[in-house]
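re: that chain from earlier
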Amino acid sequence: MNTLTVALGDRSYPIHIGAGLLSRPDLVTAKLPQQSVAIITNSTVAPLYLEPLQGRLEACGVRVISVVLPDGENHKNWETLNTIFDALIVNRCERKTTLLALGGGVVGDLAGFAAATYQRGVPFIQVPTTLLAQVDSAVGGKTAINHRLGKNMIGAFYQPLAVVADTDTLATLPDRELSAGIAEVIKYGLIRDAAFFDWLERNIGRLLAREPGALACAIERSCRNKAEIVALDERETGLRALLNYGHTFGHAIEAGMGYGAWLHGEAVAAGMVLAARLSQYLGLLAEADVTRIVALLAQTKLPVVPPDFGVDRYLELMGHDKKVEGGRIRFILLRRIGEAFVSDGMSRTEVAAVLGGQPAHA
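^ sequence. v structure.
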């Protein structure tokens, strides 16, 4: 087991990464303010991991209730959130009852937002079971639900007490979900870690083959990058915005296609290609770098061609994004692989040119 720390003063917390961690109830019980836990999971994960985890916690004297939600991004809404609240109230859960998110990014976001708002805030722990959640959404304290007009528009910054990432859970992950998680791994290389991007190019076959050593290395490197960024900018006032590389376009794709039609990582992959092409169009990013980015994403079996909604529809969808500031859409662009920056000076013509597949400036 490797342990990293998200350094946030008295709210700092560990990220435990390793095989067999679901068999380590002590990693959870050590953080509980009260011997009471509500496990929030979904209908896909519950048959695999709920019963053994619940049994191990109960054997340690912990009172456990479980809430099994429907699976899928299309259920990340008020109705599902209220299902959690109903269960907490019916079972008389108190302010020191810890919510434990057992699942992927949707479960983590729902459980985290429930924890942030139930009785004005209760403790929670992330136990991510997908690669995307282990390297991204479980770390950093972003919690939210979707609105029909925009992804993650209603939420809160609320940090967990701990993140317990059992790499064994990736053995049951569908291939499509694995690839979607690798999209977020690639993002870290693109925005701030060129050496990691080089490593990914050399080792992508090992990741797709689920070699434990390669997966553990990718997860740890990704979490280290994110932990460093979150420690410096918890509430996304500056540096943390770089983590949204590809997401302005990606969230528009998710909303435009209908939540759940494309996985989050798939939409981000296509969004990263668009952001790279926009960077190239502006004369910032070399064509050779764009070629490398597209090649790695394609090798990961991720979409590199975005859906064609038309320029007006894309701009409408992106206009509802959380990253809009002063009425201007903010984009994360690349100067080179490993160096990203925030720009809000894009004209409609520039964005339209990229969406229309126009070549870069000479």
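The chain has 13 helices and eleven strands.
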